[in-house]
Amino acid sequence: MNDKESPLNERAKVTLPTKSQAESILDVTSLPKKPDSVPPELSILDEQWADLAQDWQSQSFVKTDINQLLKQTKQRTLVAKFLLLLDIVATVGILVVALYMWINDSKDRATMIYLASGGALSVIYVYYAVKFRVRAWRVNCGSPDKAIEHAIAGCESSLSYIKLIKFSCFIFCPIANWYLFTASEQADKSPFIGLVLLNVIIIAIWLASQLFYRKRNKELKFLNSIDSK
């Protein structure tokens, strides 16, 4: 028997696949594809995170307004100091004139009494005005970390000062009316027009003070709501 035709040689033969057969065997296109769609659970979570990120980015942060708040507080402090200086100068002026009239034994008793009483009340007014203002200025150190605290102190000082102005209107009104009526009688003139104008001015001052009071009170509530967060 020929060795090439022996059963052992038949079993030892290895059949190699052809190129086309190998390509068909290694054809990756026949493998299962990765699904393009995301599972519903993951899609919902992504949408929720996107909504949260959008809400967070859309929020207004107080930090971005710190510089503006510091600038506003500084400007209001300068205005308050200027107004307080005017109050002090006016008070000193009233007292000096009243003292001058008293030393020279002025015959205009009504004016002297009016200036003396007005000067005394003005001293009390300035005392409380200085007290309210200095209390707020001591807190204000200009630090950006305490900008909201400084603004709150400034608003509280302004509210106290405005209350003082409104209260002074009630005290000043009868004294001014008395003086205008007495001075008109001494000059033999009708006090009607003067009294009307005087009271209109006093009412206008009170209404303007009330308007500023409401505005500052609204600002104070807003600042307190920010500071509590």
Q: Unreliable runs, pLDDT <50, ≥5 residues?
A: 4-14, 22-28, 60-64
For the sheet with most strands, the description reads: none
Domains (count): 1
Whole-Å distance between the termini?
A: 103 Å
Average pLDDT taken over every residue: 80
Number of strands: 0
Describe the structure.
The chain has 229 residues and is an all-alpha fold. It has one domain. It is built from seven helices and no strands. Helix 4 runs parallel beside helix 6 (147-186) and helix 5 packs antiparallel against helix 6 (147-186). The chain starts with 6 loop residues before the first helix and ends with a helix.
Secondary structure elements and pairings:
Blueprint: H1 7-12, H2 19-25, H3 40-58, H4 66-103, H5 109-139, H6 147-186, H7 192-227
Features:
229 residues, mainly alpha, 7 helices
Short synopsis of the structure:
This protein is mainly α and 229 residues long. The protein is 77% helix and 0% strand. α5 (109-139) packs antiparallel against α6 (147-186) and α6 runs antiparallel to α7 (192-227).
